[in-house]
Amino acid sequence: MPEHRLFLLRHGEGAWNKENRFCSWVDQKLSEDGVKEAQECGRLLKEMGCQFDMVFTSILSRSVQTAWQVLEVMGLEWVPVVKSWRLNERHYGALIGLNRAEMALNHGEERVKLWRRSYDVTPPPIDESHPFFTEIYNDRRYNSCDIPKENLPRAESLKDVLDRLLPYWDNIIAPEIKRGKTVLLSAHGNSCRALLKHLEGISDSDIAGVTLPTGVPILLELDGDLRPVKPRQLLGDQAKIQAAIKKVEDQGKAKPGGK
Ligand SMILES: O=C(O)[C@@H](COP(=O)(O)O)OP(=O)(O)O
């Protein structure tokens, strides 16, 4: 019998998801469709009778806005929302802002897939000459992280994401779940993948086959030691979910014009 229910959520569609650009640490807001996705997610969770005691988000607006929309639709605006950079999207380094389909044309689909889905390949790092460097590293939100600003990543593999996320999971989130709180984690495609890899014991190679669509809640039923007692459930219309996963995978296919 499960002792705990944990909900993971990749935020609703952001402006750059639509434009097929690596968004990562650039702070894009939800698109109109992204707001609708988050609201739809809230309606579904409400219909299913779900309740939350705590929500954890990254410090990127698209994950925070998604949490707000979900809580509002569920009538749970009072639920505490705790934010940490450790739940941020993977730092895509020099790839930030680039179009995936154009990258696939220039570097090949296999290379783009390795950058996007492999466990331990790190993209080239961002440096001062990058058009979004200043916007990211001068942003006040990174002044009060639990590590000095100069130690923040300049590019991350999925393994690096797990390494920075795990202490937060172990010391902050897991104890709340063990105390009996039902937690919603509103984060990103790759921060959720990293946590899934850890919780489900997914191998380094199999994690490449895991792709998460935007705005679809994932239910994990866990035992007392926070080990899953059954496979993850992506909640909602299964045909639509499969189509949404394919759409995310296809973002890395070579297409002139980038869309
Ligand atoms: O950084 C980004 O652009 C996407 C992930 O991109 P892929 O790994 O799917 O290429 O992250 P999210 O939309 O979840 O914040």
Automatic annotation (TrEMBL):
InterPro entries for the chain: His_Pase_superF_clade-1, His_PPase_superfam, PG/BPGM_mutase_AS, Phosphogly_mut1
Record's catalysed reaction(s): (2R)-2-phosphoglycerate = (2R)-3-phosphoglycerate; (2R)-3-phospho-glyceroyl phosphate = (2R)-2,3-bisphosphoglycerate + H(+)
CDD domains for this protein: HP_PGM_like
Taxonomy of the source species: Eukaryota, Metazoa, Chordata, Craniata, Vertebrata
Record's keyword terms, sorted: Glycolysis, Isomerase
Primary role: Plays a major role in regulating hemoglobin oxygen affinity by controlling the levels of its allosteric effector 2,3-bisphosphoglycerate (2,3-BPG). Also exhibits mutase (EC 5.4.2.11) activity.
Cross-referenced Gene3D superfamilies: Phosphoglycerate mutase-like
EC code: 5.4.2.11, 5.4.2.4
Species this protein is from: Paramormyrops kingsleyae
SUPFAM superfamilies (UniProt xref): Phosphoglycerate mutase-like (SSF53254)
GO MF annotation terms: bisphosphoglycerate mutase activity; phosphoglycerate mutase activity
Record's protein name: Phosphoglycerate mutase
Pfam families, sorted: His_Phos_1 (PF00300)
Taxonomic superkingdom: Eukaryota
Annotated positions for site Transition state stabilizer: 188
Xref: HAMAP family: PGAM_GpmA
Family: Belongs to the phosphoglycerate mutase family. BPG-dependent PGAM subfamily.
Residues annotated as the enzyme's active site: 11, 89
